[in-house]
Amino acid sequence: MATIEVSGKSYETDEEGYLINLAEWNKDVADYIAKGENVNMTDNHWEVVNFLREYYDEYQIAPAVRVLTKAIGKRFGAEKGNSQYLYDLFPYGPAKQACKIAGLPKPTGCV
Amino acid sequence: MAEITAPAYRIIPIIPALKPDAMVESKPYVASDKIQEAIGFPGKLADDWQVTHDAVIAKMGELLSKYRSLKVYLDACVHCGACSDKCHYFIGTQDPKNMPVARQDLMRSVYRRYFTLPGKLFPKLVGARDLTKEVLDEWYSYYNQCSECRRCSVFCPYGIDTAEITMAAKEILDSVGYGQKYSNEIIGKVHKIGNNLGLPPPALLDTLEGLEEDVKEDTGIDVRFPLDVKGAEVLLITPSADFFAEPHIDSLIGYAKVFHASGVSWTLSSMASEAGNFGMFIGNYEQLRKIALRVREAALELGVKRIVVGECGHAWRVAYSFWNTLIGVGAGASDPYAIQLQNQLDLRYKQPMHICEFTWDLIERGGLSFDKEANDKHIITFHDSCNVARASRMGDFAGGQFEIPRNIIKACANNFVEMRDGATREQTFCCGGGGGLLTDELLDLRVKGALPRMEALQQVKDSHDVNFMATICAICKAQFTKVLPMYGFDRRVVGGVHQLVSNAIKLGDK
User: Fold this and answer.
1) Which end of chain A is less packed: N or C, by CB atoms within 10 Å?
2) d(C-alpha B408, C-alpha A47), whole Å
3) What is the mean pLDDT of chain B?
């Protein structure tokens, strides 16, 4: 099992750097993971990450990309409610990369 | 990790120059003991090599006695070389061990040493070798570079099915605690949650309700996405990626619109919210059956009369070729629940039926009408998915699995162009992500394996401005979404056949 060190504390991750313990997540860890992904966290990124965590709390899974785009569009403005906007924020793909930064497990399967 | 880039297109598409051991380091993450044990495999390799050695040989012996085909395939090869340049992974990686014959020989050499007389007496003369840890590592690496697409088998004069050898290798590796994380973690999720994605029922329900709102907003029509409705006529079994990923979800919307227009009542099931069956990828019959049994349980509980399968390549192979004896969808199984299901299903219809068969049947009977101009922005080609093309059938005529999806596209769109001969239909190239290889740590392999398909796509892009490649497989869709940009295409070039149907279908009285 791999670990990452953030502000003097160590956190367990899987081989790909996804956090093992969801509850340990905090903003510093998110920033650290984002840096490793070459993502520079802005307010726009945080809107998505915070929504993902909220959705996960309720459903124990990340939202479908379509559900995510719709929710972001409704909350933060129609210009943000499309998948290209999300891909611009998270170039490796919003489902996996944004989940990783949000400390959520990786979506598996044919995605 | 070094940056992953696409290989250059070949100027003359012939057998590539060899790069020995180019991919020897390519391997997926090994499954943890937790993942392994959750599906009944040993957690890890034994500390004592001799124990593993003996277990591998014993398992190989068991498979050879159980599957006559495996023995025939291991005996029959004459190394003629007809298969050697037919594998997309060999073409893309240039590693000679990715020639199908060489990949098979990784196991064949061990088979000869332990199971044939000449190999026991004169190993060196007949290419037989001892099983060592290095050999087993080589298996792990190279059998995880075969997507079980069976293109090589089309060209083999003996009809050797390389996929079956790969499946046997994966089964042996699992049985000694050397499993692959991606596939085995997913199998665990199916048993625990009901689908490969790990999508719990409340999330599924929320997603489906959202889709109903979206379609209403787009079309003004109340198209339903029913879940767990008892007494529905049709149970739709579709890959869970259809509930989650793009472009997959657009095909799901297409299925719902087709059912709406048909007037046939239908339902999805939260218990069987997965068409995919990774038990096949790992060559494990018990898992194959156990995963399939969820479908039977759901069908019996919901009392449906028909089972229809969504756009998922290997699922259609499992459904079409194995569901009859596995669970009683079709004739052949003899246990009481299978017979109960056979009696429940309406045998005037194909059981199971592919969603493309369902849609095409309606089109032929004049049951659907289209505004074809809605697809005019697309110049469309069709990528045949390996398991549909080479391991199944649709309709009542030879080659139906090729014609029916194309017929649907032509019925709902004006611009259709074929890719070159030799790259479609029974000779189609794998997307590069099948067989349990659709995982991020194998991205380099996946990008390289997509090369021949990308070459063929580029040709029709150059000649006919093709900007949409339709397909009917969740793995193909996810794989191409990822690799298309690396070859200079937009990720949205790939999409589903029912995505095109969805764009053009006329609903209600409008």
Assistant:
1) N
2) 41
3) 97
The position carrying tokens 């990774």 is B278
Taking the C-alpha atoms of residue B191 and residue B287, their distance in angstroms, rounded to an integer, is: 10
Assess B202–A contact: CB distance below 8 Å, yes or no.
Answer: yes
The pLDDT of residue B2 is above 70:
no
Which sequence spans correspond to the domains of chain A? 2-101
Residue A10 touches chain B, beta carbons under 8 Å = no
pTM reported for the whole predicted model: 0.97
- What is residue B103's predicted lDDT score, i.e. its pLDDT? 98
* Res B14: pLDDT: 82
Q: Do the Cβ atoms of B245 and A111 come within 8 Å? A: yes
Please give the average per-residue pLDDT across B419-447, as a whole number: 98
* B343 and B422 share one domain: no
- Predicted pLDDT at B509: 56
- How many Å apart are CA A38 and CA B188, to the nearest integer? 32
Chain A residue with CA closest to B244: the answer is A64
Q: Find chain B residues with C-beta within 8 A of A88's C-beta.
A: none
Catalytic residue among A1, A23, A78, A110: A110
E strand or H helix at B210: helix B201-219
Is A99 one of the catalytic residues?
A: no
Domain that holds residue B82: 33-179
Which pair of tokens denotes residue B235?
């149970």
Task: Note whether B248 contacts A110, CB cutoff 8 Å.
Answer: yes
Do B82 and B201 sit in the same domain of this protein?
no
Put simply, whether A2 touches B (Cβ < 8 Å) is: no
| pLDDT band, very low/low/confident/very high, at A95 (cuts 50, 70, 90) | confident
* CB-based contact, B314 to chain A, within 8 Å: no
Substitution target from B244, B253, B278 for chain A, most A beta carbons within 10 A:
B244
E strand residue ranges, B231-301: 234-237, 266-267
- Pick the closest to residue B412 from B270, B261, B283, B269 (CA basis): B261
B280, B288 contact by CB (below 8 A): yes
Q: Which residues of chain B have a CB within 8 Å of the CB of A110?
A: 196, 239-241, 245, 248, 276, 312, 438, 474-475, 477-478
- Closest by CA position to B472, among listed B353, B269, B364, B316: B316
Check whether residue B114 and residue B249 sit in a common domain.
Answer: no
Nearest C-alpha in B relative to A111: B478
Over residues B393-422, the mean pLDDT reads 97
Domain boundary among B331, B357, B383: B357
| pLDDT confidence of residue B510 | 43
Q: What is the pLDDT of residues B188-247, one digit of tens each?
A: 999 999 999 999 999 999 999 999 999 999 999 999 999 999 999 999 999 999 999 999
Q: What percent of chain B has pLDDT over 70?
A: 99
A20 touches chain B (CB under 8 A): no
B475 part of contact set with chain A, CB < 8 Å: yes
* ipTM greater than 0.90: yes
Whether B200 sits inside 8 A of A16 (CB atoms) is: no
Structural domains counted in chain B: 3
Report the alpha-carbon distance of residue B198 to residue B291 in Å, rounded: 14
CATH code (residue B142): 1.10.1060
Domain A2-101 has CATH 1.10.10.370: yes
Interval B111-134: pLDDT, tens: 999 999 999 999 999 999 999 999
